[in-house]
Amino acid sequence: MLILHDYWRSTAAWRVRLALGLKGLQATHVPVNLLAGDQRGAEHRALNPQGLVPVLIDGPLVLSQSLAIIEYLEERHPDPPLLPADPAARALVRSAALVIAADVHPLGNLRVQRWLKEEMGQDEAAVTRWLHQWMGDGLAALEAFATRHGGACLFGDAVTLADLCLLPQLFNARRFGLPLDGWPRLQAVESGLAERPWVMAARPEQQSDSVLI
């Protein structure tokens, strides 16, 4: 039995929900209310000393970090694949995924926003400028990637790890008012995947804790 500790609006947790859905895997969801600070409590810190979501539990295994979780699921449940068979193609997909997971997301998550406001004295407008800067840089890079390597998806025509990172990030960009007009290929990928059942089921508003606004 898989257990996923997550938060409805966490883009990192959302990636894992997408992977689970695509692979047809069931998981028991344990909500962690980030706004209430549940992630900093002793119970959650015992699972993940970083105090972050998601955390996946599979028997005795406790895993954090969304990409590590997804690659674990990929190795345990390889169909349908999230990484191409060719080593060069796999590296390209990972590079696109890391644009979001390593370069964009860490600069804009909740703890960074709080630090900017509470420790650095920045107002809401300044924090939004910060978010737009780093999200914009990352999405521009992915638009160029899609132009070179994409088809119906970010890499070719099959869903990969890169698409699982892209979809939540576009949601986040809209949430913070970043115009997406300059990235038509990314929007086309999103539109092509949006109504697939596993994509719809992973959306924030479909989660049991979405009332915790």
Largest sheet: 4 strands, mixed
Tertiary shape: globular
Helical residues, percent: 40-55%
Strand residue content:
5-15%
Compressed to H and E, one letter per element, the order equals EHEHEEHHHHHHH
By secondary-structure content and strand pairing, the structural class works out as: alpha+beta
Enumerate how many helices there are, as a single number.
Answer: 9
Widest beta sheet: strand line-up: 2-1-3-4
Report mean pLDDT, rounded to a whole number: 97
- Span of the ends, CA to CA: 29 Å
Could you give the count of β-strands?
4
Question: Measured on Cα atoms, how large is the radius of gyration?
Answer: 17 Å
Low-confidence stretches: none
Tell me about this structure.
It is a single chain. The chain is α+β, with helices and mostly antiparallel strands. It contains nine helices and four strands, in the order βαβαββααααααα. It has helices spanning 11-22, 42-47, 66-76, 87-108, 110-118, 124-149, 161-175, 184-193, 197-202, and strands at 2-6, 27-31, 55-58, 61-64. It has a four-stranded mixed β-sheet with strand order 2-1-3-4, covered by helices on one side. α1 links the parallel β1 (2-6) and β2 (27-31). α4 (87-108) runs antiparallel to α6 (124-149). The longest helix is centred in the middle third of the chain and has 26 residues, at 124-149. The radius of gyration is 17 Å and the shape is globular. The model has no long low-confidence stretch (mean pLDDT 97).
